[in-house]
Amino acid sequence: MDGSKRKSDGKDRSRRRFRPDGTPIWGKRQIDGPGVWATCVKGKEKQAVGELYDLFDSLATELWPDGDVSADRADASDNDSEDDDVEAQIAKEIASMKRPRKEQRFANCQTDTPCVVFISCKRPVDPVQLVQKHIQNISETGVMQTRHTLRLTPVSNSCVANVPEIQNLCNRILTPFFAAEPDKKYKYKIELRVRNHNKLSRDTLIQTIAKCVPEGHVVDLENPEVFILVEVFKGVCGMSVVKDYYTHQKYNVAAIAKSRNEIECSDAAHIEEPAPAATGHSTETNEERNEGA
């Protein structure tokens, strides 16, 4: 009986697997907090997650280079001070093996929906700044650095999709943004996208958010200066505030790259187009001849 129990325990331990941030893989990661919603080619969700990991890690390293350096430096200094104490060094190595795994900056949250991916972001990463940096790079170079990703929508935070929680989320996101320039009165538009959600109507969502916008700012559907991005997916609502959303093709990275490359091709063709050779013949058109007659 003891043998079978030990065998069973060993089997359970062999099945135990953890993500890099220490969370077990059998528990689905909840869609919560700040992150980036992404749409991708159907059937390429897994590939899109992989390429977004690589892209976001590269951008985050550039934008927040000192994110995890302080802890590493502290460990290094401790190691230096204990070089002469072998027993203490061994004890420290054992303790480091038992230490929880370092939490990663980005984590994929399962959506169980074709073409839709959500990558959560951990501090100090700001999803809006992250996406805008990528958009800027594409606008300058025409290179997407991804193959399957279509559109990116950053959300500064998320909540349960009900009216009280959405009101609370608005207070946490909208109030600080508009308070940053108290004398500025913005024209704004609510960009709402709803997927797999039928409890709150679009009108209810829009009215709830609009009531939370501080007084003095007005709705302008034609020429807005500020865009309130709202993503409602199943029972989760995410929100952020951005500018130049229409200028950058609603953050459709494929469209931005295509537009940038078309401009380059057009400019190159214009530069290389040879000037017409001068001849001794008249360039008078048939229409001009008829007028002269």
UniProtKB/TrEMBL annotation:
Biased composition regions of type Basic and acidic residues, renumbered to the chain: 1-12, 284-293
Domain of life where this protein originates: Eukaryota
Gene3D superfamilies: THUMP superfamily
This protein's record includes keyword Chloroplast: no
Any one GO BP annotation for this protein: tRNA modification
Pfam family, one: THUMP
Region (Disordered): 1-31, 271-293
Gene Ontology molecular function terms on file: RNA binding
InterPro entries assigned to the protein according to its UniProt record, in alphabetical order: THUMP_dom, THUMPD1-like
Entry keywords, A to Z: RNA-binding
Protein name per the record: THUMP domain-containing protein
Organism whose genome encodes this protein: Obba rivulosa
